[in-house]
Amino acid sequence: MSSTANTSNLTMVNAFDPEKASGLDPKTQEMVRRREKLLGPAYRLFYQQPVQVVRGSGTRLWNPDGEEYLDAYNNVVPAGHANSRVTAAVHQQMQTLSTHTRYLQDGILDYAEDLLGTMGPLGDTGHVMFTCTGSEANDLALRIAKHHTGHEGIIVTSEAYHGNSELTSGCSPALGSRARLGTWVRQVPAPDSYRIPREQLADLLVEHVREQIADLQRRGQGLAAFIADSVFSSDGIFGEPTDLLAPVAKVVRDAGGLFIADEVQSGFARTGDSFWGYQRHGVQPDIVTMGKPMGNGYPVAGLVARPGVVERFGNDQRYFNTFGGNTVAIAAAQATLDVLRDDDLLTNARTIGQVLRDGIAELSLRYECLGDIRGAGLYVGVEVVSDRDGKVPDQARASAIVNAMRDRRVLISSTGPSANVLKIRPPLVFSSDDADWLLSTLADVMSTTDEG
């Protein structure tokens, strides 16, 4: 793909090209061949030289030869790979009981109460519903929104990713131009703080949302919900400004719709400023969805909704999920939440995230291709450009950096509509030593690649 092409395809960003498998060592070629034969063509591998991992601990991963990698990408394990408290809780609960939510159990109630306690006003009255994955959580949230409002329309940002179910993939333009969006879906441009003056972003986003609401109403579909990830992860990682979502929520509610905060990426202390990404924007959602980091690698997810929002849905349809909220999942979630708080990983995310952004900003003084450094907490985006004045995305250069980092055993990825934004999103236990390793490796990569 060329450096100027709009990839608009989340699954292909930083993907291994099977046509280049002949350049791999024989053992890796055989694994790739078996993988293609057994798993089929829909799966993707990372990096031009795929990585095989057999063990993890904290922020580190190891391959079969004992080579150590720094994981600066994996947000699924905020408490670190193989966290002892989480694995002990899962092991103990698995030895005791693993069953669904149709029996009375203290664990799920204690955790729900604990979780709601992190959400401010929404948590005072909200209800928790458990699923297995973030896709399921978003799917359920959209079903509730449609049922509550009686409308069909969903508004998302232009490169949003909200899941891989039929419903959520239908409102996930990041899956690619060949992936079908629902006829009830409308897109609005992401708040590109690099190319648009920040003081204009809130008004522009509101204007775009209003236009799409009017179009949905004109076609008789109406507005069920606006759903957004508050750091706009797939759109290119825009952590600032934080005055965008509250005015959008007002416009959405005035039109009879719900505001859904997709916290699968930005929740659980990731942003460093607040436990939930939406809290940085000073907005109270109608529904909050969560997943990925919730169980530190164990599949657990869910949503929190205002009582009035879920009441009709609950009365008309009920809800049950065999594995959603099972006793082992709740044990993993509770242990993860305990570690996040006891080890103050919110502060760590804020502190180390700033170290990373400051260090990369220093590098940008020497390397013109590092055009913008942004994000929040331990979610860092670095825009790679071929022309800093013109702010021209450079996908090829970004890919070269990502793969050169991998060759030096530091794992990051890329994102955005042109796949030119370096995505640095490590476990929240990332330390100052880890940050030094990443920054020194990035400095080495920048000094040894073609452009300086």
UniProtKB/TrEMBL annotation:
<protein>
    <submittedName>
        <fullName>Aspartate aminotransferase family protein</fullName>
    </submittedName>
</protein>
<dbReference type="InterPro" id="IPR015421">
    <property type="entry name" value="PyrdxlP-dep_Trfase_major"/>
</dbReference>
<dbReference type="InterPro" id="IPR015424">
    <property type="entry name" value="PyrdxlP-dep_Trfase"/>
</dbReference>
<dbReference type="InterPro" id="IPR049704">
    <property type="entry name" value="Aminotrans_3_PPA_site"/>
</dbReference>
<keyword id="KW-0663">Pyridoxal phosphate</keyword>
<dbReference type="GO" id="GO:0008483">
    <property type="term" value="F:transaminase activity"/>
</dbReference>
<dbReference type="Pfam" id="PF00202">
    <property type="entry name" value="Aminotran_3"/>
</dbReference>
<comment type="similarity">
    <text>Belongs to the class-III pyridoxal-phosphate-dependent aminotransferase family.</text>
</comment>
<dbReference type="InterPro" id="IPR005814">
    <property type="entry name" value="Aminotrans_3"/>
</dbReference>
<keyword id="KW-0808">Transferase</keyword>
<dbReference type="InterPro" id="IPR015422">
    <property type="entry name" value="PyrdxlP-dep_Trfase_small"/>
</dbReference>
<keyword id="KW-0032">Aminotransferase</keyword>
